[in-house]
Design brief:
The protein has helices at residues 2-36, 52-64, 76-81, 109-116, 132-135, 153-165, 168-182, 210-223, 226-251, and strands at 43-46, 69-72, 89-92, 95-96, 99-102, 105-108, 123-126, 144-145. The protein is an alpha/beta fold. The strands form two sheets. A five-stranded parallel β-sheet has the order 2-1-3-7-8.
């Protein structure tokens, strides 16, 4: 009698765990699909405080790319959309030869490269001296579009809009704006970091394992979003719990 009762408990316990697992799968799969697929939008990321120069660059972009969405670095929308975009990402910030300012802190170009490699498409780094990203890391011109030296915010925004749209209008406006800057008719607004808020640019080199980790990072962060990764880890946890529970019930 006791053995039969134990078998019934084992059967019921295993069945309950299986049912709960199936319910969780049915509930979570739609959410995983919604948050793990690539998005078609064009995104510009503000790396630093929104000052006049960053605003001018964004305005020049939005004038010619109405569907452009502005994301603040580190925000919820940034983590949700930035690295799932199939379009080039536009990073807007203040840079110098040592690095680029992120959240009021100078970040070495080598460290910033770890953010760039997570993108699934080519990136455009709209800041002064962004060419240093290629010079100081293993990234190439096929990975990123960069600017050499100091760049005016509006001029950089117009050139970027031309690269993305292929339209002659932003290119013509860029030429006219350049002439106005040359003649002193408009103020020059460089995306240059004069006084970094902190950090150190002395260590620029990427870690030795950078090249090996790059493909793994790209797969985990681009092919699998954070939601999808969390889902798979949760399912693994549920599977382990199910096995342990079944063993425990059988043992008792």
């Amino acid at each position: 009698m006791g053995n039969n009762f134990g078998r019934i408990l084992t059967y019921k316990g295993t069945k309950i765990v299986l049912v709960l697992t199936m319910v969780m799968l049915m509930i979570t799969v739609p959410f995983v699909q919604a948050f793990s697929t690539f998005v078609p939008g064009i995104f510009a990321i503000h790396l630093d405080r929104e000052d006049k120069a960053i605003t001018s660059a964004s305005n020049a972009l939005q004038e010619h790319i109405p569907e452009l969405t502005i994301l603040e670095y580190g925000s919820f929308k940034y983590w949700l959309f930035a690295h799932r975009s199939v379009q080039p990402l536009i990073w807007i910030g203040h840079g110098n030869k040592g690095g680029i300012t992120i959240k009021n802190k100078l970040t070495p170009w080598g460290r910033f490269a770890n953010e760039v490699v997570l993108s699934s498409s080519i990136d455009i780094i709209l800041s002064c001296y962004s060419r240093e990203l290629i010079a100081q890391t293993s990234l190439t011109s096929s990975d990123v579009v960069t600017f050499k030296g100091v760049i005016d915010a509006t001029l950089g925004g117009l050139i970027t809009a031309w690269l993305l749209t292929g339209s002659d209008e932003p290119l013509l406006k860029a030429s006219a704006h350049y002439l106005s800057l040359y003649q002193g008719e408009e103020p020059y607004e460089p995306l240059f970091e004069f006084e970094p808020g902190g950090g150190s640019a002395s260590s620029i080199d990427l870690p030795p394992s950078y090249n090996g980790l790059r493909s793994l990072q790209s797969y985990v962060m681009c092919k699998m979003s954070g939601i999808e990764l969390a889902y798979h880890l949760l399912m693994l946890f549920v599977l382990v719990v199910q096995i342990l529970l079944a063993i425990y019930i059988s043992y008792n």
